[in-house]
Amino acid sequence: MLEQFIREVDAGLSAVQKHLPSKYFYDARGDALFSKIMAMPEYYLTRAELEIFTEQAEAIITALDFHAGDYFDLIELGAGDGLKTKKLLQVLMHHQYQFDFIPIDISANVLDILAQSVMTDLPEVVVKPRQGDYMAILASLKNDHHPKAVLFLGSNMGNMSDTQASKFLQELGENLNPGDSVLLGVDLIKSADIVLPAYNDAQHITRDFNLNLLRRINRELEGDFDLAGFAHAPEYTEEEGIARSFLVSQHAQTVTIGKIGKQYHFSKGERIFTEVSRKYSREILEEILAPTDLRIVAEFNDSQHYFADFVLRREMRD
Ligand code: AVI
Predict the structure, then answer these.
(1) Torsions phi, psi of 61, nearest 5?
(2) 3-state secondary structure of 318
(3) Cα separations (Å) of 272 from 9, 249, 265?
């Protein structure tokens, strides 16, 4: 784990256009900051998707096409705060569907919190948390003879490039059986005056979240980044539909990272690219899905059309 962090930081900071992987935002401090981001007035994504789940859970369940009497697996990739999933679980329980709820996450801690909260609020739901790699666990579940619906919510796919997203959905499809479903939550392309503030909030929580990458390198890799020497700078245009976050060096500076045993030079104005947050249209999603076995069968939107939850179905191969 530490070796991979070292390798990826060294590769990213040695590149001509410096970059760092956004997955390293999420240590304990990063998780707490992201929880705050989800509650910010500017971060419309969480509220929009929660509205979809609150208002349209019945229709979503119909689109997932479970048959009465079938015992199925409801799998969630990345255990979030559970708020949206609980809406779905409530309606499923109300209609006396029979299923296991299987949240999968790499963090045992995050899984524990979600499992506890579901067991407290909905004690009749069978929760079977699985810790580890998404695809490895899906592969291990593939032959359990239960129909499956996989939830991948919260615009988490937006943090992948289109190539990565396509590869991810291809693998996801390969680990499902024909007829299984995916419920995919994505943020939709809209104007910059709505999207940009979500990544550049008035309380500067997103700035701290972005800078947390450098703080983490300082702590875990013995770095000496001066956090005040880097500014948070997000960019977004509606034409492209991709929000990108950068950290911009405020003056020429040299940073030493002890555990790598190297120094990295930053010129004034030089940027570190830290995160992509893709916004989608149905057409873009269809292009991403083209090489996969998954097809769109339904789309649910919030009342403002900010967000979409797509139901995808693993099709039969001929
Ligand atoms: C987790 N992910 C969907 C968030 C997003 O909107 O891209 C991460 C985030 N980055 C800055 N703010 C929120």
Answers:
(1) -65, -40
(2) coil
(3) 11, 8, 12
Task: Give the Cα separation of 273 and 190 in Å (integer).
Answer: 22
Q: Give distance in angstroms: CA of 99 to centre of ligand 1.
A: 30
| d(CA 96, ligand 1 centre) in Å | 35
Question: Is pTM, for the whole model, over 0.90?
Answer: yes
Q: Is 299 within 8 Å of 313 (Cβ atoms)?
A: no
Residues with CB under 6 A from ligand 1: 37, 45, 154-156, 158-159, 199, 206, 209, 275, 277
| 200: Cβ contacts below 8 Å, ≥ 6 apart | 42, 206, 207, 232, 234
Nearest CA to ligand 1 atom 1: 156
pLDDT tens over the chain, length 318 residues: 899 999 999 999 999 999 999 999 999 899 899 999 999 999 999 999 999 999 999 999 999 998 778 899 999 999 777 899 999 999 999 999 999 999 999 888 889 999 999 999 999 999 999 999 999 999 999 999 899 999 999 999 999 999 999 999 999 999 999 999 999 999 999 999 999 999 999 999 999 999 999 999 999 999 999 999 999 999 999 999 999 999 999 999 999 999 999 999 999 999 999 999 999 999 999 999 999 999 999 999 999 999 999 999 999 865
Q: Which residues pair with 76 in a beta bridge?
A: 103, 151
Query: Measured from the CA of 155, which atom of ligand 1 is nearest?
Result: 3
Atom of ligand 1 nearest to the CA of 156: 3
Look at ligand 1, atom 7, and give the residue with the nearest C-alpha. 277
